Amino acid sequence: MHPDVPVCSLCTEPAVVYQRSLNLHLCGTHFTADVEQRVADTIKTRQMIVPHDRVAVALSGGKDSTALLLLLHHLLPLWEDVRLIAITIDEGITGYREETIQSAEQLTSWLGIEHHCMSFSSLFGNSLDTFLKGRETQACSICGIMRKKVLVVGAQQARATKLATGHNLDDEAQSVLMNVLRGDLPRLVRNSSRESSGKFIPRIKPLSRISEKDIATYLMLKDAWSELPECPYTRYAVRLEVRTMLSGFEYKHPGTMLHLLESKEKIERIGKDSVISEPLRSCPECGDPCSGDLCQMCLLRQLLDR
Ligand SMILES: [Zn+2]
Ligand SMILES: [Zn+2]
Questions:
Q1: Which pLDDT value is given to residue 270?
Q2: Stretch 39-64: mean pLDDT
Q3: Cα of 147 to ligand 1 centre, how many Å?
């Protein structure tokens, strides 16, 4: 081996990754095992999955959700009688969704996982492209609200007891920072996995401690990497600015994103029973969880009908 090639800190194999925050060089095998262990730990500490759960996995066919399904499938033997069901949403975004839906279909049939496809058109009567005409700058928040609604309906139809999404550490850290920048304390302390009182299907984010970069590396090592098109609406997102800023910080100060997530979790524990954390109610229109007078989807319906 070339003397300059770093060796895995845990064995004698050549390293493929340097984990800056841990100061460890890791080979492919040890890196993969580390990711799997971190996901298993996150699920265990936050009791995301319990025996007999039916876990609906939101599978867009993109990187995060592909990694999520692979990881949950790999970890299944850890839990007694747990089943996975994949749900894919077709928002109706021309030139973007076709490929990712195909990749979702291939993955689920390869893993032998039940797969449900649901479209915006069938639920809302139109594609996202149609809804967004003249509202492109609000694309991500409108789409986000509608996707959430479709996922809840899909999870209910599949009789799921948990709804898992592929949000990664970058997403979570960005959300924490955005809520702080907006001064939105209630949203900062809201914990969607615990807020269910048996009434709503709890949402879980098993990849919340895995960075976007680690997910990409994991997929490459698992031979599941593919270059998929980016959603054409992301260029409108404000999140992009926060993302750029945070990745600069993470590079200079490794561990920044994890620290942000941990601060949120600490505040969440303190805010749990305080007035900051508004209790979730059922939307009077549709019965979905909501914190205001109407749920976000019903508010959006009113806006789109105008
Ligand atoms: Zn190793
Ligand atoms: Zn509603």
A1: 80
A2: 94
A3: 40
